[in-house]
Specification:
The chain is mainly beta and 218 residues long. Helices cover 12% and strands 52% of the residues. It has a single domain (26-203), classed as Jelly Rolls (Sandwich), CATH 2.60.120.
Amino acid sequence: MKKILIVCMALFAVMRHGMAQTLEKMQWFNEPERWEVKDKSLSMFVTPHSDYWRISHYGFTVDDAPFYYATYGGEFEAKVKITGDYKVRFDQAGLMLRIDHENYIKAGIEFVDGKFNLSVVVTHKTSDWSVISLDKAVPYVWIKAVRRLDAVEIFYSFDDKEYTLMRNAWLQDNTPVMVGLMGACPDGDGFNVTFEHFSVKHLPDKRRMEWLKENAAQ
C-alpha cells in the first residue's frame, strides 16, 4: 500500500509539473484588448501600430507589441505553429526570446510588400533584420528556437517534420529568458493570429553534461 501511495504521489507531481507549462499559466507584456486561450491554443487580435525595434536604420525605438510568455533558465527547445490573417506591410507573428528591452530575438512570419517572409530580428542595444522571401503564401508555419550555451538557432518548417535553419544568433547564456508568443502590427489596424502546439522542452546544460562525462564516477 505504501509503494502504491508513493507511486501515486510521484505521478501527481509529474502532472503538476506538466500543468505548470500550460498557456493558462503564462503572462502578458503589453496585453492586447482581445485574446483567448482555448483548446491548447492562443488567439489574439494584435494591437494596432505596435512593434519591437531599437534604433538602427529607422532611428526610433518601440517596445509595445503584445507578448505572452513564461520565464525559463538554462537551455531549451521552443516551438509553435503560427496561423495569421496578415493584411498590411510588416504584419508579423512568431516566437520571442527576451532578456530585457535591449536584448531579444523575435522570429516568425512577416508580411512585406505583398509577400510572406520568414523573418528574424536580433536586438542587442540596436536591432538587425534578416528575411527569407517565400514564393507563395503559406497557410501556417512552424518556428523552432534552440538555445544552447550562448547561441540560439532558429528553424522553420511547414509540416513540423523537416526543419530548416534560418539564423544562428548570440544570446547571453546563464541568464533567465522570457520565452513566448508575439505579434506586431506597425502599419495597420490589427489582425488576428493563432498560436498552436506551443511547447518548451528543457535541454540538459551542455557544459554540465560535458563535466559529468569528464568526471564520471569510477
